[in-house]
UniProtKB/TrEMBL annotation:
This is Monosaccharide ABC transporter substrate-binding protein, CUT2 family. The lineage of its organism: Bacteria, Bacillati, Actinomycetota, Actinomycetes, Propionibacteriales. Keywords: Signal. Residues 1-24 form the signal peptide. Belongs to the bacterial solute-binding protein 2 family. GO terms for cellular component: cell envelope. Residues 48-300 form the Periplasmic binding protein domain.
Amino acid sequence: MFSLRKSRPLLAGAALLLSLAACGGGGDAQPAASGAASSGGGAAGGTIAIITVDPSNPYWKAEADTAKAAVEKLGYKSTVNANNNDPETQNQLIETAINDKVAGILLDPAGADESVAAVQKAVDAKIPVVLINAEISKAGLAKAQIVSNNAQGANLGAEAWAEAMDYKGTYVELFGKPSDNNAQVRSDGYKSVISQYPDLKLVGKEIANWDRQTGQEKMESLLSKNPDVKGVVAGNDEMALGAINALKEKGKLDQVKVLGFDGNQDAVDAVKKGEMVATVLQPIVEGTNKAITELDSAIKTGNTGVPDEKQALDCTLINKDNADQVNNFQLSS
């Protein structure tokens, strides 16, 4: 299991609805089950609306699965839907939750700036909101904003990748969704380490929006321009796995060092096979459990029980030494 550090101020650093059981594709909208409205100070019970990003991505599926189990263990009902990183879809989901008088909302926001108004609507309706995985650009609305320490994790990954590169060679970067602050924080974290090694040269960068297929397509484009590239740093595992697919098709995988971020099982397996240098495991299971605990407290007492709204949880480097210990985003001791 992860060792969660004490909550502290955040360092640096989303098909309309998808049911929890869906691992891909869209679905028809499903109204949230009704529950008692709460201003943050009422009795437990009612429904908690869980709004994730895209359960076809293993990371967000783990987030949604964990949240649903934790909510129901506490005696609430739950609804699980996805915003697909689309602010308008997210707005509709928030409005549905408000109309159904849910007790609280756990939200993985569709953009830092784009999500402020949606969270404000819920707060105005006296429904406590806790954010998980990504933050919004305004403090004082959500009861808590709980994210991975993306800067720390990117530093860990970049150092391991640079060593595997022998601190020299050309490389390319696959960048996540620009509206998600995590994309820039991770990119900056990579750069802060890699810039220390002048013989590592960035020769291309593409936005691949956290997606495996897009990552493969963007990597194919990068390879056409840089056929002899020696490394890839990717903002998440799905993009890294897409890059691996592209490299395999070109027969170049054994010549290129790939770095991922998230710790999903496909990436962990790629590390075991030597297809990926490392991935950075985000503590999404522990972070989501923590978020539900704090949301429960906010519903019952009006407060989360922790002093800081913004909380960052450290990540863990996963390489061949510890990959066998990872199962569904959890690291055994």
